[in-house]
Amino acid sequence: MVLTMERKAMEIFENHESQVRSYSRSFPTVFEKAKGYKMWDTTGKEYIDFFAGAGALNYGHNNEKVKKKIIEYIQEDGIAHSLDMGTVVRAKFLERFTEVILQPRNLNYKVMFPGPTGTNTVESALKIARKVTGRQTIISFTNAFHGMTLGSLSITGNSTVRQGAGVPLTNTVAMPYDTFMQDHHSIEYLERFLEDAGSGVDLPAAIILETVQGEGGINAASFEWLQAIEKLCHRYDMLLIIDDVQAGCGRTGTFFSFEPAGITPDIVCLSKSISGYGLPLAITLIKPEYDIWAPGEHNGTFRGNNMAILAATEVLSYWETDVFAKSVQEKSKMIKARMEKIVENYPELQATTRGRGFMQGIACGKGKETYGSEICAKAFEKGLIIETSGPDSEVVKFLGSLTIDEAGLDKGFDILEEAIQEVLNK
Amino acid sequence: MVLTMERKAMEIFENHESQVRSYSRSFPTVFEKAKGYKMWDTTGKEYIDFFAGAGALNYGHNNEKVKKKIIEYIQEDGIAHSLDMGTVVRAKFLERFTEVILQPRNLNYKVMFPGPTGTNTVESALKIARKVTGRQTIISFTNAFHGMTLGSLSITGNSTVRQGAGVPLTNTVAMPYDTFMQDHHSIEYLERFLEDAGSGVDLPAAIILETVQGEGGINAASFEWLQAIEKLCHRYDMLLIIDDVQAGCGRTGTFFSFEPAGITPDIVCLSKSISGYGLPLAITLIKPEYDIWAPGEHNGTFRGNNMAILAATEVLSYWETDVFAKSVQEKSKMIKARMEKIVENYPELQATTRGRGFMQGIACGKGKETYGSEICAKAFEKGLIIETSGPDSEVVKFLGSLTIDEAGLDKGFDILEEAIQEVLNK
Amino acid sequence: MVLTMERKAMEIFENHESQVRSYSRSFPTVFEKAKGYKMWDTTGKEYIDFFAGAGALNYGHNNEKVKKKIIEYIQEDGIAHSLDMGTVVRAKFLERFTEVILQPRNLNYKVMFPGPTGTNTVESALKIARKVTGRQTIISFTNAFHGMTLGSLSITGNSTVRQGAGVPLTNTVAMPYDTFMQDHHSIEYLERFLEDAGSGVDLPAAIILETVQGEGGINAASFEWLQAIEKLCHRYDMLLIIDDVQAGCGRTGTFFSFEPAGITPDIVCLSKSISGYGLPLAITLIKPEYDIWAPGEHNGTFRGNNMAILAATEVLSYWETDVFAKSVQEKSKMIKARMEKIVENYPELQATTRGRGFMQGIACGKGKETYGSEICAKAFEKGLIIETSGPDSEVVKFLGSLTIDEAGLDKGFDILEEAIQEVLNK
Amino acid sequence: MVLTMERKAMEIFENHESQVRSYSRSFPTVFEKAKGYKMWDTTGKEYIDFFAGAGALNYGHNNEKVKKKIIEYIQEDGIAHSLDMGTVVRAKFLERFTEVILQPRNLNYKVMFPGPTGTNTVESALKIARKVTGRQTIISFTNAFHGMTLGSLSITGNSTVRQGAGVPLTNTVAMPYDTFMQDHHSIEYLERFLEDAGSGVDLPAAIILETVQGEGGINAASFEWLQAIEKLCHRYDMLLIIDDVQAGCGRTGTFFSFEPAGITPDIVCLSKSISGYGLPLAITLIKPEYDIWAPGEHNGTFRGNNMAILAATEVLSYWETDVFAKSVQEKSKMIKARMEKIVENYPELQATTRGRGFMQGIACGKGKETYGSEICAKAFEKGLIIETSGPDSEVVKFLGSLTIDEAGLDKGFDILEEAIQEVLNK
């Protein structure tokens, strides 16, 4: 009978939902319940989650502390939806975010609520950078992923989704990311284009980048590279925008992914795990001197999703001391170790490891790219939710929640190894 | 002490939130609680809500039926966030939406979850229309409002937000809306541009429109005009996209705003009240023959917001019979009557009434545009939340929740009249 | 043997020239000699020329006065090519043009040599208008023709040549020309789009127009319409650009086509007959206050074609008194009379007359469009060179040289009537 | 009295010509006569010409052979202007060009007459490449110069002229030219961008390049680089366009500049010296399989400038044997030798030599860029016309006519050396 429900649901998706659906194809089941790093489908099968809602569930599924607060709030008829009207929840978040996150890091930003999605914070960042500088061009990087609406898509690298635009994507220039060329001379290249008045690249309003490229292949920029980019931004009076939608909120081991590089972006984009319960929320952080918006110049109906803001306030408690960050950093080492052993144990993959923190991947080598998808499919059969990344889906990407314990990590990686073995023995 | 809290919150907004905030300026207080058609601020002051979250709260604040379901779901650790993976909640919504909404109206659409905001459904509609036709141009209308991301913004009329883009907005052509010219010859005009191969308007992929323009001044298109547009779309093989983000979900008295016109759009955009609890959700309805998406060609982290989908499923019960729709239609007449009386009673405004259903407005006449903002500001002081609309904020716009009762309507309109009197006697 | 030469040349065109050639298809012969309003092909066949090099030969083929001067100049090794270096020829032209053309008309313009083609003067006009205003949008009109390079093409109406761009044409808006709508309410439309801040048409840098649309169907704007456009330009601080490439240099009976309308454009584009011998030349006239070019900001190798400038100086003698203009105006009446009689005599064409001066046409009626091409083809067989115009080639267009005599006009129109009769009797 | 004429002419330029003029500022005099490699101003002063009309006078000023033919043609009332109608002159050119130029080089191209300027042939090349491939993006190179109309400008590198567009320049990507990076790894960069589906550079329609960049600094690509580019074009199914407007027509020592590299472009753009008398003409050569134009899809009034075509036919005689080419190659060595000696003799310039054939330059080193303009200004005073090139005008550029004799070269270089000495001794 349960099986019937599963089958019926699958038919409903096939008959009534658009062909655009994707994860329901990678993970072909019907989920019903979730807690921490585990999910269960309608047949009761348990899954270890190394995907964490594409990085939107850094604090695990249905985090108990947040859950309690949300239920209370709903029960008391707290304001659910208020656009950008003043609410108690909104004030508290702004206060706490400033105290817990910004001030201890010596950061001074105005907080903008641009609409509750990653693409919305990116679009708002592009707008304000163009307004501040009066210039049009934005420099982004190879294999960047910034979103699906026309502005964000124009700075996204993937050719399939770019073509989906149906119109040319303009006013942007793609430059080589730190890891794009083997010789790592990407900074010299960028510098030449900026310094030569005849280069054909118009002086940009801003440079936007992810410190670790989540969708583009778990490419992690070196701190030196990030510092060099910041220097170029200062020299040429361009704004530096860090899209920390996936790499932020602790995923790399610090709240902001750029902290260990010692740089200070002019604009920061946050979304995914900023709410911490998988509730849609995004914020854009803007240096006060650049906060020259006219009221309502960028808006959106769901920019004031109070339940999400309430959750976002609650999870700030993880960042009051450095205990949580340190635990993430510790577990990151364990993840790296397991990945390196896999690379060593399965030379057939000709793989290498990549990334940092809770954003690491095993990149299958040239000519071995298809292993990526095969391994993830096999792992799913065995009860592990894990996704690929990269232009050829060649990277097996770990993106588990930061709250996962060692047992969970072990179990997940054990399944992953089994999957690899089976794929290779096929 | 409460006053202090209010003052402190206001300071927090001023110091820590971006200058972009707008409604917190129109309604300068700090809200704490809401129920049905009422809101309360931290001082305990009660407000009648004629704004309903810009149309995202058609079923009132914190609707009891939905509230119970959400709490249960959270308590049972139902899946909160799942991108577009299969979940029980998702399957149920698709099934129920088909049964309750589509089939009784003889409509056949595939449902796409494009990301949880209005602008996201619009961007997805533009993409698929361009993909289906292989053409670039989109025709939109004067005073249209479709969203703030680059694609949606390019079909939005308002010059202030357009300028916010910081880059030229391209591949779109603005045509006169039904009510734009006094002579109402907008169809002939559009037709001439399409039929003349030398007109300079390239054959478009699609025409996108709101049947009632919510932000652009509560302009309501006649049914004849909508039918003429549909005919042009068929004749010139263009897709017809109805952006029903604000006018849909019952706001005009039927579930879809285009029902009484007897037309069948190729694509329908829904958001705002589709979830019914102010939770971020959007869906794009696409005729099956046009659902030619590649998997993942348009995506977004928060496209599977299960709490919102659960709420959306629950509020479908309002549409199982025609009782609710009829009550909305009845109350609409009352709204119209009150507005017409106001127009009559205050000839100094040189006003006219506009709109249909729960989307009606009082448009102050030429030279009297500033009364719009003054009246709304005064009404707020007196405990009524009501907003302006139109290029010069000249329209006082009623956008209350559909579940408001007659007493609520009466009380709200009484306050509005008092506000008008005071403004005029100033 | 002559026939063989003809045949061989035709083969050469077919085998070695690109498929893009067009007039060699409309007029399938090989021309060898020309004088005044006559041309001869290699077989010795004589043709009356009602086409005048698409309006580049206003003073007839191989005008004797100019011819003598050019030969002298070449014989004396005068500077042929000098970019924009100072030459005697250049100085004399500037001096004479100011004295003979500008001063008597109370016009004050700086003269720019933008490269020797119509499209080049138009591109230069768009650039300076955008630089002066800091805005991007240019308003052009339905059925406009301004040129084939990307900037000019973006303000050209014809869908076939627009599609040839291979990229979307942007930053332009097409508005209805005076004659586009039957009700002639085009000014009201344009005005509404400009006055309504929500119209979706961004405030333009400039309006560009032809007073008579040569390629778009010999549509002549009324003087009232031109005056209304000028007023709108002043009210909204937009520049008014008159593209007088085809209608200027006397073609409509005055040197500038806009003189009888009493308007003063901010920028005027001249080419085609400005040199008067069919030699490539173009000039852009710019009000001194808008001449804010940086040196070399627009350039081009052939902008200083001294032979053409010499010719241009020589033909100014036609404009020293009003004798020539008056003769053109007289002959224009005769042309109109002949055309009206044709319309009357051949009701099967359901035709109407159009245009003014030496730029008039017979427009075949709805459903009769194909007659246009058939008549011109038949006329060519009979020794008359005449072309069609309009989006459906429905207009038989007279564009003879201004120096043609009455006998020439008579003979040409006689051939035209014969051709019409034969086509209708077919 | 002569001096007065000079002064008066200068006043006329200042008062009546646009500020956009540039060469009349570099060479502040009024020219009257020219022959071979010499020019004279109105005061009778003689100048050696190392500029040759920016490369439009490869066969010298007022070439005797051509001069005679033109005078004859004019005297006989040959067709001056005919758009693209068939003329005897046009047929003869097509025949001769095929016989003398194309066939001996095993090249098979259709000839298009796109309008008489360099920018026009470039715009036509972009259009046909986009039409053939159905793609939009064009790859051009750093410091490229292709023209001033919107399409050509979008692939031109110089930031000042780009900004002159007044709108964003789109659908193009600038890649590093062979000489742009010190490490010469530009091919690897380009290759990575093409091979990586996530690079953010959409698959281009074509690559366009100059084999020697005339305006961008006399940068000469190596033959290996050109061959590598051709290979990439084949591998990725992109068209290869060579803009040979300045480097073609013998300037580098062979008729086409790309001959010694052994590559076969899909499209070739020619202008400047194609007519050989400084008369405006341009042609686009297109492989027959790509000549898919619709008739008239690209056009232009002056595309059939018969006097220029006649001249173009006449100068083909220089290419009937290899005598002329060899003499150019011999003299090129002498030019190189003189330049290298200058570099050696004046180490203060920290200069290097660049270029090939009759397109060579002395590039002043880092920090010494301003010497370029100073030297040219001083040389002009002393009777030598020579221009700078490069993003900072740092290159002293030799661009003399190919027919100059050794005495002329010697005299010119002697003046140049004197100028350098005086500048350095200042």
UniProtKB/TrEMBL annotation, chains A, B, C, D:
Name of the protein:
Diaminobutyrate--2-oxoglutarate transaminase
- Which species does the entry assign this protein to? Sporosarcina soli
Kindly give the NCBIfam families that the UniProt entry links to this protein. Answer: dat, ectoine_ectB, PRK09264.1
Q: What is its EC number?
A: 2.6.1.76
Any single Pfam family the record assigns to this protein: Aminotran_3
PROSITE patterns per UniProt: AA_TRANSFER_CLASS_3
Q: Is Nucleotide-binding among this UniProt entry's keywords?
A: no
Gene coding for it: ectB
> What does this protein need as cofactor?
pyridoxal 5'-phosphate
Tell me, what is one Gene Ontology molecular-function annotation carried by this entry?
A: diaminobutyrate-2-oxoglutarate transaminase activity
What keywords sit in the KW lines? Aminotransferase, Pyridoxal phosphate, Transferase
Q: What is its pathway?
A: Amine and polyamine biosynthesis; ectoine biosynthesis; L-ectoine from L-aspartate 4-semialdehyde: step 1/3
Which family does this protein fall into?
A: Belongs to the class-III pyridoxal-phosphate-dependent aminotransferase family.
